[in-house]
Automatic annotation (TrEMBL):
Pfam families: NUDIX. The lineage of its organism: Bacteria, Bacillati, Actinomycetota, Actinomycetes, Mycobacteriales. It comes from Gordonia sp. MP11Mi. GO terms for biological process: DNA repair; DNA replication. Its cofactor is Mg(2+). It comes from the Bacteria. This is 8-oxo-dGTP diphosphatase. Residues 1-130 form the Nudix hydrolase domain. The keyword Glycosyltransferase does not apply. It catalyses: 8-oxo-dGTP + H2O = 8-oxo-dGMP + diphosphate + H(+).
Length: 134
């Protein structure tokens, strides 16, 4: 894998909801909702990076699952990869975000229709909805 890679956690609850995080920055994205995550550091696997990032950002430990089928390449040298996860310990805390929200399929669909989802994350909406409805 070459270039920068960002992993995002599609964190599902046991009752059919998905965790979204509201961005605090940069100004053009502040207030929009995203899957939480961050950059893969040199020497880390995708799973290790996701676990570290979710621990740092949300103060939770997760069990990492399967990748979503779609990866996003918003510009040359940058790839965004979403990975399914479940919280195994801790309660999510918005340490680096404005807010956190558990959403079901209907709310996710409505938020997407209103333009409240970070543009780069919108490519994952169909698969996230399928997970939530399945």
């Amino acid at each position: 894998m070459s270039g920068a890679i960002v992993v995002a956690g599609a964190i599902y609850s046991g009752d059919g909801r998905l965790l979204l995080a509201q961005r605090a920055y940069p100004p053009e994205l502040a207030g929009l909702w995203e899957l939480p995550g961050g950059k893969v550091e040199p020497g880390e696997t995708l799973d290790q990076a996701l676990g570290r990032e979710l621990c740092e950002e949300l103060d939770v430990d997760v069990r990492v699952g399967a990748r979503l089928d779609v990866s996003v390449r918003p510009k040359p040298g940058l790839e965004l990869i979403a990975i399914r996860a479940r919280i195994v310990s801790g309660a999510p805390d918005a340490t680096e975000h404005l807010d956190l929200r558990w959403v079901d399929a209907d709310l996710l669909n409505a938020m997407d229709a209103r333009g409240e989802i970070v543009p780069n994350d919108r490519a994952w909406i169909p698969e996230l909805l399928a997970d939530l409805q399945g």
